[in-house]
Specification:
Layout: E1 5-9, H1 13-24, E2 28-32, H2 35-45, E3 49-53, H3 61-72, E4 78-82, H4 87-95, E5 100-103, H5 108-133, H6 143-154, E6 159-167, H7 170-176, H8 178-195, E7 201-206, E8 209-215, H9 220-242, E9 251-259, H10 266-282, E10 288-290, H11 308-315, E11 325-327, H12 329-346, E12 350-359, H13 368-381, E13 387-390, E14 395-401, H14 405-420, E15 428-437
Parallel strand pairs: 1-2, 1-3, 3-4, 4-5, 9-10, 11-13
Antiparallel strand pairs: 6-8, 6-9, 7-8, 12-14, 12-15, 13-14
Helix pairs in contact: 2-3, 7-8, 8-9, 13-14
Length: 438
Amino acid sequence: MIKSKIMIVDDEHISLAMTEHILSSTYSVVCASSGADAIRTYFKEEPDMVLSDLRMPGMGGFELQQELQKKAGHPIPFMFMTADKDEGAESKGFEVGAMDFIRKPFRADVLLSRIANILQTVEEIQGLKRAAEIDPMTGLFNKATVQAEVDAVCRHTKGALMMIDLDSFKPVNDIYGHDMGDKILIRFAEIICSAIRGSDIAGRMGGDEFVVFCQHITDEEVIASKAKYINDHILSSAREFMGDNMNIPIGASIGCALAPDDGRDFMTLFKKADKALYSVKSGGKHGYEIYHDEESAGSYVEEDATDIGEAITVLSERNPARGAMLLPNEQFRLIFQFLTRVNANYQRQMHIVLFSLAGKDEGSDPPKNVIDAFAESMAGTLRQSDTITQYGRNQFLLILLKTTPPNAELVIERIMSKWNELEASTSVDVTFEMREML
């Protein structure tokens, strides 16, 4: 068992030696004979608490406490000892934040008991602090803490902020139950931790959304290898838990932004990583993408086709999924502009619908997993000729082709009916606006 470390500060050598003798049987002890010596020793030894004489030449106990806490940037457990009979000194000690006060000469058992009480109180406080910072299910930092930790690091350290979403998590809960879902989330967190170093930062943003900041990593090959590792291991874990015949396409989508090029604070990097993540999900999931600014995005060019058949093959959608197309904003915008031109010339009835999601509590945002569930539910309800995009965090735009107003209303009713059958629907309010494009 590791002993707690106590720093004793006293300019009287006999008193210092006696106090060291009392404490050394129970604790690891370091000594300093002046305030200046104590400051040097503290940052070298990093003791768990300081036991300081109150009256010392040059720098007294009160001044030492204030100087140490100023330099350390956090509260330091302090206990004062003194032969001074002045009752005001004890009051001042507590006012400046001392945890206890003992008068010389003191009995060994009393000193040991008081120090034990201080260390137990410190441990309890640290335990409560850790509990407030940690996501209880996964053991990773919670949303507020990971944001603060990344903010503090990325201002002066280069690295990669990666948003990591667990793909197709909802069917795990729906088919195998929430206990299995919890097991998968816990294993997913363990896999993320095993893919990064101890010096990196990992947290759970909520639901199936995680974030890590890997310090000093900007190489795409390293990011790609981490993405592959996470995808391979979560799939094998899912089969381990749910059986080899498990056919849920579980995996991870990762959006990445690089510091300092893409930003030097958490929110700037997070928003850009979120855009990259959305691109991964729109492109089929189970992969990664590094954020690129809009000017450089989409700059690749296909090689020349040998004939029209090859050109059609290149342009065609591979393995089209059932239901509506779920597209990034830019692609949706181009389709909308094209269809508006077509509609102007050929009067193909077209409706555009804006869905808005809001949390049940006033002013609250819906969790990301609920937003994703709504998108999947809506896409599965619609035709392959319909098109959807996420518009902002809590909204979706939908294009309905060749629909009369009554038919468009029936489509909306069908979307809402299917959505209201899901458990996720109970946590949000959904409203919509519809307009016919004439």
